[in-house]
Amino acid sequence: MATANREDYLISILRLTEGKGTAKTTELAEFMDVSPASVSEMVKVLSSEGFVNYEKYRGMSLTEEGLSYAR
Asked: What predicted TM-score, i.e. pTM, was given to this entire model?
């Protein structure tokens, strides 16, 4: 898979979603200190690759494959 950047996103999503299930793109952007547009772009890529479940305006969560990879 993965570039270090993708790994960073997966690990950050894991940290944000532990205990609550989903994270919003704005939360992830703030957590990673990147722009919300960058987060949206990467989350779409990770979603198309099967690592993230993403629903616009509702947030994101890791798939089983994404969870396994992030751990």
From this structure: 0.90
